[in-house]
Amino acid sequence: MPFAALGLPTPILKGIRAAGYAEPMPIQSRAIPLVLSGRDVIGGAQTGTGKTAAFVLPILARLLEGAPALRALVLTPTRELAAQVETNARDYARFTKLRVGVVFGGVPIPPQERMLRQQGLDLLVATPGRLLDLHGRQSVTFEDIEVLVLDEADRMVDMGFAPDLKRILRLLPKDRQTLMFSATIPPELNRVANEALHDPVRVDLAPPSRPAAGITQAVYPVPRNLKTDLLHALLSDHEVRGVIVFTRTKHGADRLAKQLQRRGHSVAALHGNRTQGQRERALGDLKRGRVQILVATDIASRGIDVEDLSHVINFDVPHTPEDYVHRIGRTGRVDAAGDAFTLMSPEESKDVAAIERFLGRSVPRVMLPDFDYRMRPSEIGRAMTSEPRRERPRPAAPTPRAAPAGPAHGRRPKPDSGRRRRRM
Ligand code: AMP
Question: How confident is the model at residue 376 (pLDDT cuts 50, 70, 90)?
Fold first, then answer.
């Protein structure tokens, strides 16, 4: 079904064409007519499914009718996602006079106050804490809000925003349309949803147990003290275009970024302790190919939309299966192919088992040929300063699809002869 059949007005259809979208994605075909009809909607969708356009397009259509005022509010858990939604909304609205703005924490408040005063926004994208600060300073009023979107609502609740959400809900007009997008509905969110939504229709198209097709997943079993070596070997072995490496902690991200830099990789770090400027620079550098690797904590797993990421690598197994799905959703966007590798130490095998239960299938175990799984810790220091492994002639890695190996620690796998370096 073409976009034109969904009931969207001409200037919005022009914006969609300019964005290069030929056909609606499934969540868009389902959600757009519902949102246009004024219904409240709960969308069970993760990032990467096209959910942003699914709510932004019909909202813009609604805003084209009626007097200019701040009539639509989108709440997101992170500034990266907020910036991403705003960019998309501006793109789709480029053939209209509608004004779109964004506010989030971590940057000075006065420029945002000026923007809100001067620009006469129709749609505001915001993170909850900063929005409440701005409201407390009377820089924004909610009296004209007709549509509210809770984007990645489960993440907002995970991040402790439930009280802020409830406060915001109490400040908004009761008579409004509410849309909620969330990969999961934990009990706390259910309570928020009961308060926020009126007779919602559920649109469940991409449950998180089905990561986008095109992502190749593999688990690399490895002793914990060899993870950095194995990561370095994998990065040297595969043709990587853009990689996000996830660690559990900010400190771990910084440490790993330095270790990779010392081994000759071009790396940036992205986590919650970084200033907004540093975060934007890191993301921009990855997007423009100035750095090849971004080492990030989970804060970065939502809202990042970097074209052409070839790999997501979990240096640490994520805490929850949902985080796993969000992390690996950073690669293989839409129809692209991508690899998602997880480095698993014996201590983390329980977490991987939980992920596999959640996915409803097992992820192949793969061992890297020619990697010395018996390397002693004393050799690690030497390996850290040695040339990248690709300098040594040796066969390349197996593809995860082709070479599921048993997770036999300490056993050296047979090299896979004659394989070419992988390009994903
Ligand atoms: P989202 O889930 O909203 O983050 O969207 C994931 C990616 O899909 C973004 O890069 C969008 O620009 C892209 N996208 C959204 N809708 C379409 C469409 N109908 N056709 C092609 N790409 C799309």
Answer: low
End-to-end CA distance of the chain, in Å? 31
Within this chain, domains 3-204 and 215-380 share the same CATH topology: yes
Provide the CATH topology of domain 3-204.
Rossmann fold (3.40.50)
**DSSP assignment letter at 239:** B
Scanning 159-275, the segments in alpha helix (DSSP H) are: 162-171, 187-196, 227-237, 250-262
Instruction: Decide: 302 in ligand 1 pocket, CB within 6 A.
Output: no
Q: What pLDDT does residue 378 have?
A: 39
Which of 47, 51, 88, 334 has the most ligand 1 atoms within 8 A of CB, as the residue to mutate?
334
Find, among 128, 129, 134, the residue nearest to 113 by Cα.
Answer: 134
> How many Cα atoms occupy the beta-carbon half-sphere of 113 within 13 Å?
11
Nearest CA to ligand 1 atom 15: 50
Q: Which range has the top average pLDDT, 94-108, 299-313, 408-422?
A: 94-108
Ligand 1 atom at shortest distance from the alpha carbon of 25: 19
CA gap 148, 7 in Å, rounded:
21
Dump strand ranges (E) for 267-407.
Answer: 267-270, 293-296, 311-314, 338-344
**314 Cβ inside 6 Å of ligand 1:** no
**Band of pLDDT at residue 205, cut at 50, 70 and 90:** low
Residues 119-164: tens digit of each pLDDT: 899 999 999 999 999 999 999 999 999 999 999 898 898 888 999 9
Residues 6+ apart with CB under 8 A from 168: 75, 128, 131, 132, 142
Domain boundaries, the chain: 3-204, 215-380
Strand order in the sheet with 72-75: 100-103, 123-126, 72-75, 147-150, 177-181, 41-44, 201-204
* CB distance 96 to ligand 1 below 6 Å: no
Which pLDDT tens digit goes with each residue over 105-116? 878 999 999 999
Q: Does domain 215-380 have CATH number 3.40.50.300?
A: yes
Evaluate: CB of 48 within 6 angstroms of ligand 1: yes
Ligand 1, from 8, 12, 21: best to mutate by most atoms within 8 Å of Cβ? 21
Residues pairing with 339 in the sheet: 216, 311
